[in-house]
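Encode chain A's predicted structure.
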Amino acid sequence: MKRTIGATLFGALLSLQAVAEVVVVVHPDNQATITKQNVQRLFLGKETAFPSSEAATIVTQPASQPLRAEFDSDVLGRNTAQVSAMWAKLVFTGRGIAPQEVETDAEVIEFIQGDKNAIGYIDSASVNGDVKVVNLD
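Encoded structure for chain A:
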């Protein structure tokens, strides 16, 4: 019985560590005041610019990435299939250009380094001095 409880607790601890904390990031020079609502509107194709009126370049990760599912759910309040369908409709009707898609957190950071108007998301463990975290509280 003790072994079973111990194994269960150990497994629970491992699964908690495996859960990523998604953070929205921008170029360190981006001075726009960005709210969670701004992020939602940008990533859902309802806005194309930051509150400072600078055009925003959206970078996302593939639908197959667990971090993407977490971002879509926790930040956008939708599942990944819904977000993908919304973008497909915007692109098909000519009312939007799909976000740039990269494979990894490192590629998101690299993309943002090269575009001061880029906005994306990464695992909080990947944050470094090359990006600035947007406070969504």
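Residues 20-134 form a domain with the D-Maltodextrin-Binding Protein; domain 2 fold (CATH 3.40.190.10).
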